[in-house]
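Lecture 7 notes: from sequence to structure.
We start with the chain below.
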Amino acid sequence: MTAADQPQVAPYDALLLLSFGGPEKPEDVVPFLENVTRGRGIPRERLEEVGQHYFGFGGRSPINDQNRALLAAIREDLAAAGIDLPVYWGNRNWDPYLADAVSEMRADGIERAAVFTTSAYSSYSSCRQYRENLADVGAEVDGAPRLERLRQYYNHPGFVEPFVDETVRALGSLPETARDDAHSSSSPTRSRSR
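Predicted structure tokens for the same chain:
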């Protein structure tokens, strides 16, 4: 495939996967929680108490492994489509940190990158705070590339359709007489009057 035949990704010369981050081992738990709660004055004793939840998983969050798998899948998909686009990964609260990823991008000569945040939904911590993090890192890293966050994808068909498909499949597995009254155990109780 010649360069003229390759799909174009202009105006971007990289993709940045941006996520929350998580501890990788038990001794990371409290320092990670200190990062997450920085500036809020939460006592260390409370952080240690909250940190106990991580020990049920061996002191390790699954999020970094999930991001490594996502990173590999993105790179594989881009390569299969003939798209030569470097993909970087940075986290808000744990290694690899966003500032380190952006510094690496700058050193690699990246000038403009699309930023995919792993949180699908819009809220302060999953939308606005990421925008603030991107602005901060742009000011912190001298010569940082231009970083343009892609839209939230909570309503994208590729995200929604698997939920719809699995819901339809689950309903189809119920006896016909139970389908009309089926609801999630977490949803509000529906009125049974008809």
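Points to note: The two ends are 63 Å apart (CA to CA). The longest helix spans residues 63-80.
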